[in-house]
Amino acid sequence: xxxxxxxxxxxxxxxxxxxxxxxxxxxxxxxxxxxxxxxxxxxxxxxxxxxxxxxxxxxxxxxxxxxxxxxxxxxxxxxxxxxxxxxxxxxxxxxxxxxxxxxxxxxxxxxxxxxxxxxxxxxxxxxxxxxxxxxxxxxxxxxxxxxxxxxxxxxxxxxxxxxxxxxxxxxxxxxxxxxxxxxxxxxxxxxxxxxxxxxxxxxxxxxxxxxxxxxxxxxxxxxxxxxxxxxxxxxxxxxxxxxxxxxxxxxxxxxxxxxxxxxxxxxxxxxxxxxxxxxxxx
Length: 282
Fold this sequence. Notes:
eleven-stranded mixed beta sheet, globular
């Protein structure tokens, strides 16, 4: 059994910001969901997302598999989340991940980690992972199950514009030994006893499926909503079944004050996601 993505795009630009448009429900917002071969803490106590994928290829079906899923959330208050893995017709739930948490501060960011255990895949085709918060469906992402690399029927919705799946601050991006994109040092916020300070990091943005050529750019705002940076557009091509990861390298970025640094992500000049990178003074 092999898990894989189609391609990785790399460039060097800048990133960051926030707003409230997509995937909001009752003070909680989904800002990322990642299927990976392995998810764990790295040597710094930060998150390692090793081997991001969208396709599982089996030699023969039926077959079982186990894999973790990372979801990233922003908001405040107490919430219950649910991730369901559905068969291609969406008539059968193959596995469920549930969790609950409390976001303490306004615009708090945290992640939830769960595992789909021993999922019985009986047929090839496009399966679906549904992400819910407090009973409301926020996002569906496809998972392609193949037998011997066969072609599968692609739903029309997956041949249109790409699905935004994550925007994550991290320390490093690389390909693992299986050729899969991996993110090391994913974090949620800064705590500091010294202001101002500077830091270098990357912002990785993930796109799934779709068809054609697109542009992405990112804008960064200060806590008082002043525009700090607008990146040059990055052009990428994508097709059904693929995952494209773009990253922007931010060098010696200056955090002048405590508060929420807002990150907006645009696809062809349309805002598709936003999140906050919080700076907390000790």
